[in-house]
Specification:
By secondary structure, this protein is an alpha+beta fold. It contains five helices and eight strands. The protein has helices at about 20-30, 30-35, 45-60, 110-120, 140-150; strands spanning about 5, 10-15, 65-70, 80-85, 95-100, 130-135, 155-165, 165-175.
């Protein structure tokens, strides 16, 4: 898994060395993310982040999931982009998730980060996914706008999709198909 770079951002592959900075990100943004993210105890604990970031790095090495941490300066974590539920074989798809520091909202940083990640995921000589799906709560207008600007199209409403802050919440499902998908060869049909 490689480090990605945009005009303003460093997208750093998940690694245990980022545990303290990642725990600080979640501590700073606990109230902001509570509206949009499922409860996950321990996010602000650096030792738990070491475990999770180690698992994320191992998943990236085996090609079953990827996670990048967003930074402007290469030191402070300001967000993350995750790619999970990777299915190969005859599907070649994954699910996209993301979070951004409340203080960085409205600057186009997530759009910039996701452009780089989608390009990496759709690269014919690289990860080469055919389809990417993302879900967001209908009231999260910013998230919906980011996905729309990236070319994701709505595919439907999933009722009671995720339990967030103790309540089951509806989410709009979106997808983006890779127009440059290169036909999978026998080695990738696993």
């Amino acid at each position: 898994m490689k480090r990605l770079r945009t005009a303003r951002l460093h997208l750093l592959p998940a690694h245990p060395a980022w545990a303290v900075a990642t725990a600080e990100f979640f501590a700073r943004n606990a109230a902001h993310l509570a509206r949009w993210e499922p409860r996950r105890p321990g996010l602000t604990d650096a030792s738990r982040q070491v475990e999770w970031l180690s698992q994320a790095a191992a998943s990236a090495a085996e090609g079953s999931a990827w996670r990048w941490l967003l930074s402007l300066d290469g030191f402070q974590v300001l967000g993350s982009v995750s790619v999970s539920q990777v299915v190969r074989g005859f599907h070649h798809s994954a699910t996209l998730g993301y979070a951004l520091d409340a203080a960085q909202q409205g600057r186009g940083l997530m759009h910039e980060a996701l452009q780089a990640v989608v390009a990496e995921l759709f690269e014919p000589g690289g990860i080469n996914l055919h389809r990417l799906q993302a879900a967001y709560r209908p009231e999260n207008l910013r998230s919906g706008q980011v996905l729309q600007r990236l070319g994701f199209r709505e595919i439907g409403l999933a009722r009671d999709y995720l339990c967030i802050d103790g309540a089951w919440c509806d989410h709009l499902l979106t997808e983006r198909i890779n127009p440059a998908f290169r036909e999978a060869n026998d080695a990738t049909l696993r």
